[in-house]
Amino acid sequence: MMRIRKELLVLTYVSIGTTLFFFLFINEEKSFRAFYLTFAISSMYSFFIGLGNHFVNELLNKKFPWSEATTKRAVLSIISLLVVNFLLVYVCNYINFVVFQKSATPEEFFSGKYNFTNWFMLNITLLISAFLHAKGFMDELKKTSKKEVVEQKLIAKSANAQFESLKNQLDPHFLFNSLNVLSSLIDENPVQAQKFTASMSKIYRYVLEQKDKELVTVEDEIEFAKIYCDLLKTRFEDSVNFEFHVDKEYLKKFVVPLSLQLLLENCIKHNLATSSKPLLIRIFTEADTLCIENNLQIREQIKESAGIGLANIVQRYSLLTKKNVFIEKSEDYFKVKLPILNDKPNAISTIVSDDDAIYERAKKRVKEIKGFYGNLISYCVVIPFLVVLNLITSPKNLWFYWPMLGWGIGVASHGLSVFAIGINWEEKKIREILEKENRNHGK
Fold first, then answer.
1. Where do the Signal transduction histidine kinase internal region domain residues begin and end (predicted)?
2. Which one, 5, 63, 295, 385, has the greatest CB density within 10 A?
3. Sheet holding 279-285, edge to edge
4. Is 0.85 topped by the overall pTM?
5. pLDDT in tens, 212-249
6. Contact predicate 333/292, CB 8 Å
């Protein structure tokens, strides 16, 4: 309601302004009747055309918002500008010349006598309507940019908190399991317990160093896994065997840290391991994945698992990359495939800092669009002035076509360079920029 009142107030001011202009500088008759007639005609044009475009724009905003269907909305806006304004101009001109001024009969009006007047008025109306549609787009763009930047920051902070929570599970989880192993060894083999303690200190140092990283090289993770396997071998001796077959080409690529340690723990925890039936655990590379496989010797679970290991790895990968962790299970073996990443992706912990860069790109995008609409607004203001000046000073020599055409081509080219209607935008509108960043980081 407030917006409609504002529109009506603006249209009233426009009506008064155009009335004063035509009455003071164009009309030869300076009488109250002439002023009243000029005001009625100006108000008719202003309110008919202004409100007509307003309601069409509002209807398109509800059905095809700029932020959700930009290309379709642009096409529909152009079509609506032409159709609606053509009808409005002809209706207004008919009422003006046939009803108010009585300077033409209906037959004369439709005979072609007023074609130039209709065409001239239509061009002026289209320029003003284009300005109104551009203003509506800018208003929605500002609201969308503010909303999306706030949402992106909230998403980034939430994702970062989630990732930190997952990483923080590793420290107490590893310590708890290691102390359980040590407790068992103290009773079974005190000498081995001492060796285990020394190895545990080295491993725990690695845990402390790597747990705050999103990714580590395959080489580092394999070296850690070998040390951890030695630690397990200390306890289980011949009951557990390990094999490593990792291609050198993958050593400098990346995986989630401590993933092998968690999966090794799962292998031990969920399977029986005895000297007569040893558990074989193989770690190898296969088609851009780091695999850990064990023969199935399912042990009966006394209590329900906490579910930290595999679930933790799956969640951390899902926050870092679109690639999935694959799980294969048969009657004979259980295999987990960890994606090997060629490069470090823009991980969750960098989203918060990258969010400022995203916002800067968004601001740059807004600046480009504002530059285009500044050009369009200037065109809408200057060209009508040149048309009026031309018709007043030399109506027989119509030179305004040239600046209108030349500048119009320039505005159209500027619009295509900014929006690239018909193909993808260079960075698309702000909503798409931010959603793309969110998809890249959140999958």
1. 161-239
2. 295
3. 240-245, 279-285, 289-295, 333-339, 326-329
4. no
5. 677 889 999 999 899 888 878 877 788 999 999 999 99
6. no
